[in-house]
Every structure is written in C-alpha cells, then in structure tokens.
Amino acid sequence: MAGIDGYEATLKILLIGNSNVGKSSLLLRFTEDTFLPQDEVAATIGVDFKVQDMMFEGKKYKLTIWDTAGQERFRTLTSSYYRGAQGVILVYDVSNRETFDQLDNWFNELSTYCTNKDVVKMIVGNKVDKEEQRVISRKEAEAYARKSHTLFLECSAKTRYGVKDAFEELVRKILETPSLWQKKPSPSNNVNVTQTESKQDDGCNC
Ligand SMILES: Nc1nc2c(ncn2[C@@H]2O[C@H](COP(=O)(O)OP(=O)(O)OP(=O)(O)O)[C@@H](O)[C@H]2O)c(=O)[nH]1
What we know:
This protein is α/β, with parallel strands linked by helices. It has one domain: Rossmann fold (3-Layer(aba) Sandwich). It is built from seven helices and six strands, in the order βαββαβααβαβαα. The chain has a six-stranded mixed beta sheet, sandwiched between helices. Bound molecules: guanosine-5'-triphosphate. The site of guanosine-5'-triphosphate (GTP) has 21 residues, from helix 1. Pfam families: Ras (PF00071). Its EC number is 3.6.5.2. It is an enzyme of class 3 (hydrolase). This is small monomeric GTPase.
C-alpha cells in the first residue's frame, strides 16, 4: 500500500567507480535524458544526488541516486554515502582497462562501508559507443561479474543505450529483496512498505 505521499517506497542507489568513467553522465541521462559535451562536464566534488520517480509494475517509487566523486581527493565522508544504500552501481569505462581493473578496489570499499549483505550490486560498462577503442570485451566483464555474484550491463550515457535498463534492473532486484526496503512492522504500525529518507536508515545496516 502506498504512503500518503503516493510512493510505495524510497530507494537509495549509489554510483561509484573511477573518475571519468561517466557516473555523472549516466545520472544526467537517466534523470534528464541529456548528455553534456566534454567541455561542459565538471568533475564531481564530494557527492551529488538527484531524485527521480520510477513507475514499476503500476506502483510509484522514489529513487534517490547518489553520484560520488571518482577522484580520491574529492572523496570525503565516504562511509556516509553508503549509509542506507539498497543498490550500488559500479561503473567502468569499456575503453579504459585501468577503470575495469580497479573494480576490485571499489568492491573492497563497498564491503568496508556497506555491511548489509543483501545490498544489490551491479557492474556497468559505460561508453560502448566507443566501439573502436573498446579494450574490455563483454565476455571478460560478464565472467568477472559472474565471479563477483553481481548484475552486469553495458551502456552508453552518450547514446542512451542500456541506461534505463540498468536502473530498472537494479530496482527490480531491490524490490525482489524485501529485507532491503520493507520496514519491519511495529506493534503501533502495521503499514510496512512506506519509508521516508530518514526512516530508511533505521532499517538498514549500511
Ligand atoms: N563517448 C562517451 N563519453 C562519455 C560517456 N559518458 C561519459 N562520457 C564522457 O566522459 C567524461 C567523464 O564523464 P563524467 O560523467 O564526468 O564522469 P564521472 O565518472 O562522473 O567523473 P568524476 O565526477 O570525476 O568521478 C566526460 O567528458 C563525458 O562527456 C559515454 O557513454 N560515451
């Protein structure tokens, strides 16, 4: 049952990955269906977040999507980004091997700060429009994702290929994992699916 604000639940999703892989561009494509040319994109400092409604199987969800800085010097308060996150998207650039090789480090950070074992993880290979410069094949990334028990998708923030699918698949998986988003019933309140951003933190171990 939806809450008085009309939302079934509020979900927190985090974007992490090396600088320049396109995290901010994926967020902009998903929320505003826009892509900024290279000279108009600024590096994220600290964290940025956008709120986006999503209809899923006839129900309305509120997504708060947090875009973190890839550059180490801009990463402050890292642990607080992870707090209450139900889904994490680990982004690499298919035309840059280093960004793929460093996924291990991002997984380490994730497991350090996000103690919720059910958090849904997804690896996203961005910039597939740069097919000529591709250095990470879909096959290699799929094998890595399988080994890491993680969802995997390729996309392009530039052409919009796969972007909506990535967020929808992540949300679907979160919704299939009730421990991540259902508020435990309390004696005084049997409505157990509505959350606000502040209430969310109560139910999650992140
Ligand atoms: N060709 C291509 N370029 C992209 C794509 N997505 C992002 N870019 C470009 O890659 C550069 C970095 O994009 P950002 O979105 O700022 O990357 P970021 O991961 O948010 O970087 P930080 O904020 O430093 O962590 C920009 O010049 C974008 O225009 C894509 O799908 N294809």
